[in-house]
């Protein structure tokens, strides 16, 4: 083990005798659009605190001092990030937009971790134009509820709508970060969202209509220039916070949308069977396949 450094964040001293490091989930890397240094989420086993002692009989040995329970171990992938600090950011390759690996967002009770990135492309006649990059952040506790899909391939995960529904129904927070890569006026942005949401609302109730009106009001008469950031944060399956800034992460919540039908429809827009950003859903499927090995 010469040259190997184990770094852990201690949370509980276990007092157990271990001679090796045991992990019940290891996420060793990523593929297209997925973070290339990944947190091993919700590691529940114990990791020995080890020290190297002088050689005995021609070989060194490891002696256990104590056992430390860890909730997070960061594993660096073999390849460095293509641009920027590989420890802090992930670059969405098609748009070159950088996403932080973990963020503290307005209205959230805890830090959220990046699970995948992608981009939205709009076709005008024969021309395809990239409109925004997007990244999904989740409370890491959500991953502990996905053991049913352990061992599934990325393709199987991507085709299984029940997994994404499980993520949505989880009471823990999750947030979609959208970064504009071209100038768009607020009305145009809303019209595109409404066009995708409306078919998913078969018979809108008065509460649904109020929620849609609140949602629409955020974008009316609002310019969304290149670099603008929009956060759609589900604090529960029936409540979504909307935050907008002209650049950088928003610091405040602009409005709360409270309708289970509307919040569910919007999640389905991005992660349902016909997502508006196939690359984002594919990225999540790749990452989840590695986390759930």
Structure description:
One of its GO terms (biological process) is fatty acid metabolic process. Residues 96-289 form the Chalcone isomerase domain. It comes from Brassica carinata (Ethiopian mustard). One of its GO terms (cellular component) is chloroplast stroma. This is Chalcone-flavonone isomerase family protein. The protein has 293 residues and is an alpha+beta fold. It has two domains: 10-76, no CATH class; 89-291, Chalcone isomerase. Helices cover 23% and strands 32% of the residues. It is built from six helices and 16 strands. It has helices spanning 154-159, 161-169, 186-197, 206-219, 260-271, 278-291, and strands at residues 10-13, 37-41, 46-52, 62-70, 72-76, 89-92, 97-100, 102-103, 112-124, 127-138, 174-180, 184-185, 223-224, 229-236, 239-245, 255-258. It has a seven-stranded antiparallel sheet with strand order 8-9-10-11-14-15-16. A three-stranded antiparallel sheet has the order 1-4-3, with no helix packed on it. Strand 8 and strand 9 form a beta hairpin. Helix 2 crosses helix 5 (260-271) and helix 3 (186-197) packs antiparallel against helix 4 (206-219). It is globular. Residues 1-34 and 36-85 have low confidence and may be disordered.
């Amino acid at each position: 083990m010469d040259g190997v450094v184990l770094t852990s964040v201690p949370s509980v001293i276990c007092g157990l005798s271990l001679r090796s490091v045991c992990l019940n989930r290891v996420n060793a890397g990523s593929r297209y659009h997925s973070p290339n240094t990944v947190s091993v989420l919700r590691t529940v086993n114990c990791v020995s605190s080890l020290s190297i002692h002088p050689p005995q009989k021609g070989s060194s040995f490891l002696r256990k001092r104590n056992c430390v329970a860890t909730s997070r171990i960061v594993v660096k992938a073999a390849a460095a990030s293509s641009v920027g600090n590989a420890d802090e950011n992930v670059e969405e390759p098609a748009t070159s937009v950088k996403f932080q690996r973990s963020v503290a967002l307005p209205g959230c009770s805890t830090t959220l971790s990046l699970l995948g990135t992608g981009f939205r492309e709009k076709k005008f006649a024969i021309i395809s134009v990239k409109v925004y990059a997007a990244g999904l952040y989740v409370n890491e506790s959500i991953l502990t509820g996905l053991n049913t899909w352990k061992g599934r391939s990325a393709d199987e995960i991507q085709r299984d709508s029940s997994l994404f529904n499980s993520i949505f129904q989880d009471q823990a927070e999750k947030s979609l970060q959208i970064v504009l890569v071209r100038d768009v006026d607020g009305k145009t942005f809303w019209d595109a969202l409404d066009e995708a949401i409306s078919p998913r609302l078969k018979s809108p109730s008065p509460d649904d209509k109020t929620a849609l009106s609140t949602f629409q009001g955020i974008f009316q008469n609002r310019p969304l220039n290149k670099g603008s950031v929009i956060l759609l944060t589900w604090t529960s399956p029936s409540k979504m916070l909307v935050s907008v800034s002209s650049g950088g992460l928003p610091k405040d919540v602009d409005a709360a949308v409270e309708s289970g039908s509307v919040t569910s429809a919007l999640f389905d827009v991005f992660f349902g069977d016909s997502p508006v950003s196939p690359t984002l859903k594919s990225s999540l499927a790749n990452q989840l396949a590695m986390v759930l090995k």
